Amino acid sequence: MEQLFDLNYARSLDREDELAPLRERFYTRPGQIYMDGNSLGLCSKDAEQAVLRTLADWKQHGIGIWTGADTNYFLYHDHIGAKLAHLIGAQPEEVTVCANTTLNIHQCCATFWQPTKERYKILVDELNFPTDRYALLSQIRLKGYDPADVLVTVPSRDGKTMEEDDIIAAMGEDVAMALLPSVLYRSSQLLDLERLSREAKNRGIIIGFDLCHSIGNVDHDFAKIDCDFAVWCNYKYLSGGPGATAGLYINRKHFAKHPGLSGWWGNRKETQFALRPDFEHTHNAGGWQTGTGSILSMAGVDGALNVYEGVDMKKVREKSLRLTRYLMELVDSELAKYGFTIGTPRDDARRGGHIALEHDDAIRINEALKAAGVVPDFRYPNVIRLAPVPLYIRFEDVYELVRILKDIMETKSYLKYANETGPVA
Questions:
Q1: What is the 3-state secondary structure (H, E, C) of 154-217?
Q2: What span, in angstroms and rounded, lies between the C-alpha atoms of 156 and 159?
């Protein structure tokens, strides 16, 4: 067996990596190991060029930018939606870009949650990112219901992961809708979306997924998953830019359904500027648009998606799994003796794109990593999240990360940092 903790071995893996050339399309900083692409992806040269192109179009065309530039900005959301659809195995007309993840959850809940006396509950899991729950609670109150009566929260058995069996068992006859994550943001567990969608459908339950921690990294196949809706941000693995315009998937079987939150940008394009008093929504995902899109923000997403052109998402997923597997192996062989454990599923089929490295002194170790040129992030109570994004992270970076962690623990340099985080962890 080859020596895993060996720089030459790591470099040999990089030489065999067919995705390695993609790294040159991103702005990486010398001496920095960027392991936080699951929070905010690095800026790509493609994204930069797209934003600069849009600024140039604005300068040249003014109001004429909507239809006078080479890029059709009036239908920009359709153009970008088609690019995103390719990444998740959806039809181009089923995907659009608009608003942010939280507002898109509001939109989907307003559209798909139609409570009746017999069926009115909403199913969620205990470990999903809080904004999903916040939005649902708001929608429940807006319709005059008691959240304590409506929201069904499936508990975790270990505080880290969810069991699909438990989620399915909670799909009672009174459940109208379910909203679940694809990948849990702390532990990086990947749920079986196809199974959950099938079980929900068998019970007449509307189901949607939050893809924030998987899109651009996991090779989803929505033709098979066949859920009702999905939401996600475009600034993590997709590197669309800070606060980039978010993504929305609406299953084509619902195109005739009236959007819960209507706005003029969702109107049929043929009559949008007729400015009629009655809303005529377009029968594709674009019909769930509300106000005018943020073109400069969308441009970053458009450019970032160029990196994926000609790239097989199965190859991206394969490299992601190899990187995270390598990192876990090095944690086991080099770091376990310092008290580190892994809070992420080991099984490839149940693991997303980051590793939850756990330690009782995680806050201070996280600060020491940052001082040493590593960019991680921390999640309470004891998790350092490390995301080796396959588009720009090398196996050599994983090796160097572990080497730095060993040095931090050997020298106990982390002890000089306060056991507290700043406002952005």
A1: ECCCCCCCCCHHHHHHCCCCCEEEEEEECECCCCCEECCHHHHHHHHHHCCCEEEEECCCCCCC
A2: 5
Residues 6+ apart with CB under 8 A from 208: 108, 112, 177, 178, 179, 180, 227, 228, 229, 230, 231
Q: Where are the beta strands (DSSP E) in 272-414?
A: 341-342, 355-358, 374-375, 377-379, 383-386
Rounded CA-CA distance 307/47 in Å is 9
Share the mean pLDDT of the chain. 97
In terms of DSSP H, where are the helices of 189-294? 193-202, 222-225
CB atoms within 10 A of CB 307: 21
Q: Are 266 and 281 in contact (CB under 8 A)?
A: yes
- pTM greater than the 0.85 cutoff: yes
Q: What is the CB neighbour count within 10 angstroms for residue 200?
A: 23
Please report, for residues 178, 358, 405, the alpha-carbon distance to residue 115 in angstroms, rounded to integers and kept in the order given: 13, 41, 51
**Distance in angstroms (rounded) separating the CA atoms of residues 168 and 210:** 17
Peptide bond into 130 cis (omega under 30): no
pLDDT of 2: 61
pLDDT of 241 above 50: yes
* Cross-strand partners of 381: none
> What whole-number percentage of the chain has pLDDT above 90?
98
Residue 357 in this model has a pLDDT that exceeds 80: yes
pLDDT given for residue 1 in this prediction: 40
